[in-house]
Design goal:
Strand order of the largest sheet: 3-2-1-4-5-6
Distance between the termini: 10 Å
Bound molecules: 6-O-phosphono-beta-D-glucopyranose, magnesium ion
Radius of gyration: 17 Å
Helix content: 40-55%
Length: 214
């Protein structure tokens, strides 16, 4: 049975995915092209610098290494400015209740995020204390879809991968969970997260009984 639950951050705990999209789109428009919602799906779960490369390739824009670093930093400043409007009420519906339920049942919890801003965002929504371990973009050397992020989380919690469940909204994150040998719960649409073991729209009607039924 499941002994640990590992959560992605952006788009699972809190809807920061919309702020990433706004900030990348503004950069694209500044460079003279648009970034569609569909194109943005490819960026979910992907590190900041890799995302930048994808956005530039969509626009057919080439930049020097120096200019890339400057653009990535500017995107992050804008992203954090948008994030700072958030309050603890911005945690996605049902997510706190589910984490409380896990705690009450002695199931370990971990964060597995590509973001270097994970800690500051969890503090902003007052949810840092929910996680027994945090694996974020500052710790990993291989991004999703590599399984490293979730394997590190499982190792921190001392739980075998087969007894871990991962909650993810990104195609790359589901791939990462499956490559780690874990149960993958997709948050979003089944037509997008085709490799997930189950896909749910969110945590509102989801709890331990539903998890144990998968
Ligand atoms: C992931 C997001 O969680 O973190 C990506 O889905 C983002 O969109 C990545 O690029 C890195 O985030 P940050 O905060 O380090 O730029
Ligand atoms: Mg995500």
């Amino acid at each position: 049975s499941i002994q640990a639950c590992l959560f992605d951050l952006d788009g699972v705990i809190v809807d920061t995915a919309q702020f990433h999209y706004i900030a990348w789109r503004e950069m694209a428009q500044d460079l003279g092209f648009d970034l569609t919602r569909e194109e943005n799906e490819r960026l979910k779960g992907i590190s900041r610098m890799e995302s930048l490369e994808i956005v530039l390739s969509i626009g057919g824009v080439e930049l020097s290494e120096e200019e890339k670093a400057r653009r990535a930093a500017a995107k992050n400043t804008r992203y954090l400015e948008l994030c700072m409007q958030m309050t603890p009420d911005d945690a996605l519906p049902g997510v706190r209740r589910f984490l409380d339920e896990l705690k009450a049942n002695n199931i370990s919890t971990g964060l597995g995020s590509a973001s270097k801003n994970a800690q500051v965002i969890l503090e902003r929504i007052d949810m840092l204390h929910y996680f027994d371990t945090i694996v974020d973009g500052n710790r990993i050397t291989k991004g999703k879809p590599d399984p490293q992020v979730f394997l590190m989380g499982a190792a921190d919690l001392n739980v075998p991968p087969a007894q871990c469940a991962v909650f993810e909204d990104a195609v790359a994150g589901i791939e990462s969970a499956k490559a780690a040998g874990m149960l993958a719960v997709g948050i979003g649409e089944a037509s997008v997260l085709t490799q997930a073991d189950i896909v749910i729209p969110g945590f509102e009607n989801f709890g331990l009984p539903q998890l144990e039924n998968i």
